[in-house]
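Listing S7. Sequence submitted for prediction.
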Amino acid sequence: MRVVVSSLGMISGLGCSVPEALDALLRERSALTPLRYVNSKHSRLPMGEVPLSDWQLKAELGIDSRAVITRSALLGIMAVKECLSGLPEQVGRTGLVSGNTVGGMEKSEVYYREFLDPTQHEHTPYIDAHDCGACTEGIADYFGCFDFISSISTACSSAANAVAMGARLIRTGRLDRVVVGGTECLSKFHINGFLSLTILSDSPCAPFDAHRKGINLGEGAAYLMLESQEALEQRGGKALAVVSGYGNACDAYPQTASSPEGKAPF
């Protein structure tokens, strides 16, 4: 069964939609800025932070400012909303497969001392928002239109694996269309973790330079609408691309040190 891509949605430091990101790329505008929304002593490091606070994201989405929802979920909702914008309401069996690595860590790392204090209750609801599945459920609950949801957490390959899983769900006839992709916000956990590996650069990264110093972290969300060719034709949609294949490999070595022979990628 032919699986196609029919729509896109994204948010990043380059902008809050696909057209904004494209315009920034064409203008060669960098998304790197000092940190504003993560309270870190390493805020001097250039990173690709989405230019909206949690409060602004909630206001943009019409979500109560007191709602218990993580930044990763908010970024995911923004991107999925754009992805669904051109889709009719009743279009058959639709799923959501979302990749995420640390769930609500950005709230847990701020409030964990309160979690341990039985006299503190203001932020304890964020305990339930900590895991990756809660992030996906937060996105799905906002729209209320998904017949199937699933979370994938495989570090940097999470969203790629979401694409593979979504395509298989369509090819096996379980769903007609699946929103696939991933979302992740910046946190102290990310920053300190990558610093411990000594791979963060204090200047814009130069990936093909012999004297490169490391990488720059970023946050954002991006999703694709996958559909079977038949479902797309039934609603009169237009294909943007075709999912012609995918692959995955695992050598059971640590995440930060692959096999000495480098066999897994092949």
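Caption to Listing S7: primary sequence and predicted structure tokens for the chain studied. The longest strand covers residues 3-12. Strands lie at 3-12, 94-99, 148-152, 177-184, 220-228, 241-242.
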